[in-house]
Amino acid sequence: MDMYSIVGGTPLRGTVKISGSKNACLPLMCAALLGEGPTVLENVPDLRDIRSMMLLLEHLNVRAILKNGRMIIDPVSFDTDWVPYDMMRRMRASMYAFGPMITMRRRAAVSKPGGCNIGNRPIDLHLRGFRSLGVQMVERQGYVHARHEGLKGAEVNLLGSNGPSVGATCNVLMAAALAKGRSVIQHAAREPEVQELANLLVAMGARIDGIGSSTLAIDGVERLNGVKWRVQPDRIEAATFAVASVITDGDVLLTNVDPTTMTATLWALREWGAEIDHQGEDALRVRRGKDCPMRPLEIETGPYPGIATDTQPLISALLAVTPGVSKVRDTIYRDRFMHALELNRMGAKTTQEDDSLSINGVSSLEGAAVMASDLRAGAALTLAALAAEGSSQVRRIYHVDRGYERFDQKLAALGARIVRTAEEFQDPGAEIDWSSVEQAEQVSEVETRA
Ligand code: EPZ
Q1: Mean pLDDT, range 347-361, rounded to an integer
Q2: Any residues with Cβ below 6 Å from ligand 1, and which?
Q3: 164 CA to middle of ligand 1, Å?
């Protein structure tokens, strides 16, 4: 296993090109299965989840080739109707194959993905959606077995206890595009990645009204075509580099971004004290505001256009080094705070209270060995380490590889002191300065007496 070895304290400076969006690309790759003829995707990031989806397509007997950000998917020999546990377990987004499989093959069996490190992640809304379209399903031995005699357009309500679902909306949208008659999805997710899938389907020949709203009306068509499509920039990667710039007191120009997809995050960063200048339509210069104090925040994540849950760990890392008391509530994944425990190992002062994190900002963090529990936690810990005093090791970075293209190389190009190595380096905490322990003891004795 690899880890990042990081020496903090260098302000990041320069230009970084943001890659295509992982979360937009994954459903687009599955939508390509619906077309008669190949689909070509451009601006595709080369990262682990995309490679995992390519393996899944291969398992379905569909060829996908990725070269220089261009992916060609030819569904001509798509002939498989099950996805094994090993594929579902690796990546929850494998669920995106379910919609096209059930649509094109009339039957499908997929292993249920189960929970993951960011909390409970059920698939009940996906199943509710398919049932509404006339799919019969049974659950057996951890698998969902589904079949139908022709999809029929219907009213589909996708409101869940934690709000709308991106994945369920995408899955039902793909099936409804080729169902007989009109479907209306109520409480559809409105995330830019959902909008992009809907727009791609329209380019393929689908008839969809209400794109961008929470009610989508779909008039099923007989067939869809393959198309050429450019994937939107990754708004979460852009947010990551924006936070990297301000947490290190740097000055970074982000290019290939779509600021319209990240207004809530930009608002939060401005409230915090960041200066963010638009440079043309697709570039943002991000730094700390001149003479502007860093301010603690009280924020909560929410469905789009709210603050994305995927940026919550990044913002939490920033608030850990922001004087004052901040509160961060995650309404999407109410327990997504594993990163906070690791931040505390670096000297942060955070406490989880139900679905919120209370953060008592410290003036600086100390380098330490920490462990990524998931993709965004890994990114957040990397940013914290870049801002910390001394050296850190961020372990289990295979999580980071899932969703960031050349993350360490992009950071290093901005001046970060970050190296990827095998996980066997010396623990920075092993260099013990016994005299500092004595001094700390004396200080605490004095404090206790006082
Ligand atoms: C997508 O996951 C993203 N993944 C996640 O990003 C992101 O955190 C999430 O949307 C929310 O924005 C991809 O796009 C590949 P949901 P998804 O269905 O579609 C509950 C990252 O770091 N729910 O919108 O799986 C669910 O538990 C990843 O890049 C149900 O209750 O998320 C959650 O509380 C992590 N029943 C809420 O809805 C269901 O059937 C939103 O989940 C489905 C979801």
Answers
A1: 97
A2: 23, 26, 92-93, 118, 120-126, 160-162, 165-168, 189, 193, 308-310, 332-333, 375-376, 403
A3: 9
Q: Read off φ and ψ for residue 373, nearest 5 degrees.
A: -100, -20
Tell whether the model's pLDDT for residue 450 goes beyond 60.
no
Which atom of ligand 1 is least distant from the CA of 191?
12
Residue 173 to residue 168: CA distance in whole angstroms: 8
- Do 146 and 39 fall within a single domain? yes
Q: Answer whether 85's CB lies under 8 Å from 74's CB.
A: no
CA neighbor of 168 nearest in space, from 222, 241, 113: 113
pLDDT of residue 393: 96
Indicate the top mutation candidate among 48, 49, 121 to test ligand 1's pocket, ranked by most ligand atoms within 8 A of CB: 121
Q: Ligand 1 centroid to 193 CA: how many Å?
A: 12
Tell me the best of 137, 165, 373 to mutate to test the pocket of ligand 1, counting ligand atoms within 8 Å of each CB and taking the most: 165
Instruction: Say if residue 242 is in the same domain as residue 384.
Output: yes
Q: Which of 180, 199, 230 is the last residue of a domain?
A: 230
Tell me what the pLDDT averaged over the chain comes to. 95
Return the residue whose CA atom lies nearest to atom 9 of ligand 1. 166
Same domain, yes or no: 90 and 225: yes
Instruction: Provide the domain limits for residue 197.
Output: 22-230
Q: Same structural domain for residues 127 and 215?
A: yes
Q: How far is the CA of 92 from the centre of ligand 1 (A)?
A: 9
In ligand 1, the atom with minimum distance to the C-alpha of 236 is 29
Is 177 part of a structural domain of the chain? yes
Is 130 in contact with 171 (CB distance < 8 Å)?
yes
Residue written as token pair 């479907």:
183
62 in any annotated domain: yes
Closest protein CA for atom 26 of ligand 1: 121
Q: How far is CA 235 from CA 20, 22, 204, 322, 357, in A?
A: 9, 10, 24, 23, 23
Q: In the listed set 230, 249, 284, which residue is the last one of a domain according to the structure?
A: 230
What is this structure's pTM? Answer: 0.95
Side chain identity at residue 335, one-letter code: D
CATH number of the domain enclosing 397: 3.65.10.10
Verify that 348 and 389 share a domain, yes or no.
yes
Residue 122 shares a structural domain with residue 252: no
* 71 and 91 assigned to the same domain: yes
Cα 118 to ligand 1 centroid, rounded to whole Å? 10
Res 58: pLDDT: 97
Kindly state the helix (H) or strand (E) to which residue 241 belongs, with its residue range: helix 235-247
pLDDT digits (tens, 9 = 90+) for 385-421: 999 999 999 999 999 999 999 999 999 999 999 999 9
Task: Say what the pLDDT of residue 42 is.
Answer: 98
Same domain, 220 and 321: no
- Cβ pair 348, 322 in contact under 8 A: no
Which residues participate in catalysis according to the annotation?
116
